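Support case: pyridoxal-5'-phosphate complex. Customer-provided input:
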Amino acid sequence: MDIFEKVAGNMGPLGQYADQGFGYYSFPKLEGEISNHMFFRGKPVLVWSLNNYLGLANHPEIRKADTEASAQFGLAAPMGARMMSGQTNYHEQLERELAAFENKESAYLLNFGYMGMVSIIDSMLDRHDVVVYDSESHACILDGLRLHIGKRFVFKHNDLENFETQIKHARKVADTTGGGILVITEGVFGMPGDLGNLKGILQFKAKYGFRLLVDDAHGFGTMGSTGAGTSQEQQVMDGVDVYFGTFAKAMAGIGAFVATERRIIKALTYNMRSQIYAKSLPLPMVVGSLKRLDMIRTHPELREKLWIIVAALQSGLREKGFDIGKTQSPVTPVFLQGGPIEATQVIADLRENYGIFCSGVIYPVVPKGVIMLRLIPTAAHTLEDVTVTIAAFAEVKKKLDEGKYSSVSIPALADKF
Ligand SMILES: Cc1ncc(COP(=O)(O)O)c(C=O)c1O
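Agent response - structure generated as follows:
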């Protein structure tokens, strides 16, 4: 078999609808300044699909800081990997400030959260160690685990009873191999928006003995009294042994960080292959991230505004009878009943006739027969945006319940790849 024939003939679970979806349902282009109102295919849309939680992406102070840093340093600096020639005072300063913000001894920057997480897991474990992880963990955690050759046990999503069953198995194995146990979960689960039960998990720490690694990509900057994340929200900052956050969401940037004890950061620094063998984060992003962190610390009103929008959107949807699952974070899923045809019709109707742009997923991301629309409220939204959206959702749901979408064929909306 020719490799090219095989690759082109098997598009995988996400690519199977590429011909019907490209440019519309997948790889859509949102144009214009990043805000609550942008353009999709030339038409204005109210956007609910950007992880710009605090509205920093287009904040004038952030734009100014980014522009000045780019003018001063260019995008090339520093050249090389951190270990070889890519170390700067700015990288170190950002790490000190992030560590202080997270109440940890030390922190280290990661070029991409995804690659960083893969390497955190890879460099902390050997074949004697055992991992216990939540079944709905993000791809970066699952891909890190692909590199782990020791035992692993998965617990049912946020189910403490099942967690105890799995940690008991893990303890037995670790006692035989002489290895340690790493528990991995998320702060905010990015699709359903519920919180990892960090406090609940930590109740078992003394009995079974493990270290806890938390991916708080969606919680950093949005959760907790100062925005330090889900561990702060649940008052377990000290119990979380390794805290991971990304700049790609509340910070509206790129890059990520890990924060923990100094001796562990020292070891990670010399062992995370995705960081050792890759170029250092560009200086404008580092300087821009210093500014973003400063905004998170000094402008709590951005987080307050975010939560006003979150409360209005979530309570408004619930009042209209929508099922928004178990979210406890800004992430707002809306669960509807229907198959792929209804899902494409609902999303297209919202975009074309109501001017509302949100993302939606179907099986295999959610069970068969379920459509999950996902709304990301931000500090850049207004209460008027919320009212308009809830009214549109109510109309669309009525049409769906009346079976108005099932008879229509999928419109030819896709672009040519
Ligand atoms: C839970 C979670 N972890 C990690 C990542 C990866 O972060 P980054 O975009 O910095 O690679 C994401 C982003 O999609 C995420 O949602």
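The chain has a mean pLDDT of 96.

Case will auto-close in a few days if no follow-up is received.
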